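My current task is to audit a protein record that another person submitted. What it holds is a sequence and that sequence's fold in token form. Thanks in advance; the entry in question is below.
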Amino acid sequence: MWVGTIIGAALGFFWGGPFGAILLGLIGHWIDRSNQWRVMRGGRAGGDFARVGSVSAQTAFFNATFKVMGKLAKADGRVSESEIQLATALMDHMRLTDEQRQEAIRLFNEGKRDGADISAELAALRASGGGSSLIQMFIELQLQAAYADGAMSDAELTVLMAACDALGLTRFGFELIHQRFQAQRAFHSRSQRQAGAERPNQEQEVRNAYAVLGVQSSVSDSELKRAYRKLMNQHHPDKLVAKGLPKEMMEVAKEKAQEIQAAYEVLKSHRKGNR
């Protein structure tokens, strides 16, 4: 707000002493006020300028998440109980207000309709400026929905491929996320076994941990650490929220980061024990 005033006053003083500082300072202040008014006027549609991008990205992510989930749930012709439970669990996990929950349900039901068009929501998400980390988080959430009943059908894969095309994500990029998701799913299910159940196979757990980090077992310790840090940076909850992840989804992002951390700890322990 004061940039123009300060610059104007400094230039004015340089050229014309105190009088010049006052004159150009007033002109700079007028420019500052004009810019502030334009920001406020633009902000009435979506918040002040400093928050427009953030709010827009959060809204785009929220809308696309639940509408695409609805379309995935209906993709194979019937919405299963497990798919409904997953969407409901996500709403619970986000601790949505009553108003937000109603909006999420509305979007999910819209996505379930025959021939539902998700292109507008995906276009808004792509244009929101959240970047690749936000798109990766979105695809991971949709993969959770696709696997809610145990397996992903061809029809669900078709919906996901269409979503990737709309978001500018390549097939190769999707496969990397998909493989990492499957590894995280296997790693998480093994780590969540109840006491007294069969102990996880350590060899399989280590393989899954490498897959979670997206590296081969032959990488050096420094390469492993770099891969871990890169993934943690991509999944850091605060950074994702800054890029447009709705703050209500921060707990979901935290869980993703914790799984990456757990996989890295398994590998560190495994490597230390084999020295």
